[in-house]
Structures are given as C-alpha cells and as structure tokens.
Design goal:
Layout lengths: L1 H26 L12 H16 L1 H6 L1 H21 L8 H9 L1 H53 L5 H18 L5 E2 H18 L4 E8 L5 E2 L5 H12 L6 E10 L2 E9 L12 H12 L4 E7 L3 E9 L2
Parallel strand pairs: 2-4
Antiparallel strand pairs: 1-3, 4-5, 5-7, 6-7
Length: about 325
C-alpha cells in the first residue's frame, strides 16, 4: 500500500509541474513587461531546476555541481545587468535567453548518454549472469557422470580407482578455479580434455580407439570448458551404447588466429546426441554470448557417425 501511495504521490507531483508549466506559458504572453523584471529569468530557472530535480532526481544529484554552477552564473549575470546596467538590460535580453536555454540540449544529450550507458551495462550484466548460470549447469552435469564412473570402479575394488580420484581432483580444480575465468590458455584446455580421456580409458573394458591430435599456438586463449560437452557426448552416445569398434577422433589446431576443432565418433543410428541433455544446448548458448559473430558450429550426422566442426575467431 505504501508503494502505491508513493507512486501516486510522484505522479501527482509530475502532473502538477506540467500544469504549472502550461499555466506559465499561457500567462506570460499576456504580460508584455514581464521580461523587464529582474526576477523573471531566475524564477524560470528555479522552476526548471525544481522540475528536473523531481522528474530526474538521480541525474540531477549526480551532476548538481555542473547544473547549479551553469545556472548560478546565468542568474548572477542577470542581476548584474538589471542592477548595474539597467539601460542595457533590453540589449542583453537575448544573451540571457541564450544562456538560459543553450545548456538544456547539452544536459539533455548527457542524460541520453547516461541512459545508453546504463542499457549497455545492463546488457553486459545480463550476459555475465547467463554465462554464470550456464557454467553452473556444465559442472554438475559433467561431474555427475564422472562420479558414477568412479562409483563403479570402487564397487569393483579396481586398483585404478585411486588414479581416477587423482584425475577427478585435477579436473575439479580446473573447473573450480580456471572455469570461473573469462579466458584460459588453449593448452590448459587441451590438458583438461586429455585428463578426461584418460579417465574414460580406465573405465571402459572394451576396446576404444581414441586419437587426439593437437598443434596449437600456446599464446592463444579460449573460453574455459568449451569443448568438454562435445567430448562428453561422444562418449555417452558413441562409446557407451556401441557393441564394438567404438572410436573417437579429435583434432585441434590454430591457424591465423582461429581455433579449429574437429571431432568424429561412431554413433548408434537411433540415438540423437542433440537430445542428450543440457550439454549441447549450453554450448550453443555460450557460443552465442561469447563469440556472437566469431564462431561456426557445424554438425554432420549419418546412421553410424557423428561429426562436429567448431571454428572460433579469437581476434
């Protein structure tokens, strides 16, 4: 209820200011000598300053020093002319009018700029919030599957379980500390993928042909955790359901400031990796946010194969 009355009170004040303005504009033309008074211009200035303070309080408070300084000089000049040189008041009336109205478009332009900057900041904050949400979805999604793998090894009392724990610890460190960064080294991302691959090699008893070729410029940086969803899908929809002859071929290289990622794996004909959870959806969304005009994601699927081509422009 208090909020309602506050909004009603604010609207009433703004309406009153508009009504006073209209009244002043209607009355002034009927008084020919009104501009000969030394208090006319100061009263008009005070009226507009009061209106600006009520309508745009935040803007007025932020730039109050500049606003009050400019119009304080106009008022001082006005009283100087009328009191010191009253005979020159009529000749300086145009100057007074200009001094009163010229700052208006300047402050208006400044206000427009403030709104534009605020919208940009709002858009950036929204983008960062969306990215943070997407990252928070990536990590649990990945670790859920990895912990399931570890559980199976522990139940079987596999001697490889400690190695999996160590590898999982390294990946958790990477996702927690490096994953929150805006950019990471491409070589760090490669190491992360290799650790993930080694953990899956330990898990699977069946023969899986995995080949990861990479030749990159170590100085190039990339958004963290960008390729793991694609590799995870390859294991989930290619290796896991296959009876035999499972394979994953990866190639990652840099060329002329671009990152070229290619992956191909076997895929069951009745399985669509695009329906394999939030991973691929998150990747597409992140690419749109981080590389809006600098990425190309192409997916080629046949009855038995699934290929992904991802090109990123790092410039």
């Amino acid at each position: 209820m208090n909020s309602f009355f506050q909004k009603y009170y604010t609207a009433l004040i703004k309406g009153g200011i508009i009504a006073i303005f209209l009244a002043v504009m209607l009355v002034i033309p009927h008084y020919e000598g009104i501009w000969d008074s030394s208090i006319t211009i100061p009263l008009l200035i005070l009226f507009w300053l009061g209106a600006a303070y009520i309508v745009l309080p935040d803007f007025f408070k932020k730039y109050r020093v500049a606003i009050l300084s400019v119009y304080g000089l106009v008022i001082a000049y006005n009283f100087f002319i009328f009191n010191i040189a009253p005979n020159q008041a009529e000749n300086h009336r145009l100057y007074l009018t200009n001094f009163m109205f010229i700052p208006v478009p300047v402050f208006t332009a400044l206000w427009v700029y403030e709104q534009w900057r605020w919208l940009r900041i709002l858009k950036v904050d929204k983008t960062r919030a969306e990215l943070a949400l997407l990252k928070s979805q990536v990590n649990p999604h990945f670790f859920f599957n990895t912990l399931n793998n570890l559980y199976g090894l522990v139940v079987e009392k596999s001697p490889q379980a400690p190695e999996v724990v160590l590898g999982l610890s390294d990946m958790m460190r990477y996702t927690i500390y490096e994953g929150k960064k805006e950019w990471v080294g491409l070589t760090d991302e490669i190491n992360f993928l290799e650790t993930y691959i080694e953990l899956h090699k330990i898990r699977y008893r069946k023969k899986v042909a995995i080949q990861f070729d990479h030749k990159v410029d170590g100085s190039i940086q990339v958004a963290p955790l960008l390729f793991i969803n694609l590799l995870e899908n390859a294991f989930k929809h290619g290796v896991e359901p296959s009876i035999g002859n499972a394979y994953i071929y990866l190639r990652l290289k840099t060329q002329d400031g671009r990152i070229l990622f290619h992956m191909k794996n076997n895929c069951e004909s009745d399985i669509s990796p695009e329906k394999g959870g939030v991973g691929l959806h998150n990747l597409k969304k992140r690419l749109e946010l981080i590389y809006p005009n600098g990425h190309e994601l192409r997916i080629e699927k046949t009855k038995t194969t699934y290929a992904v081509h991802l090109n990123l422009n790092t410039h």
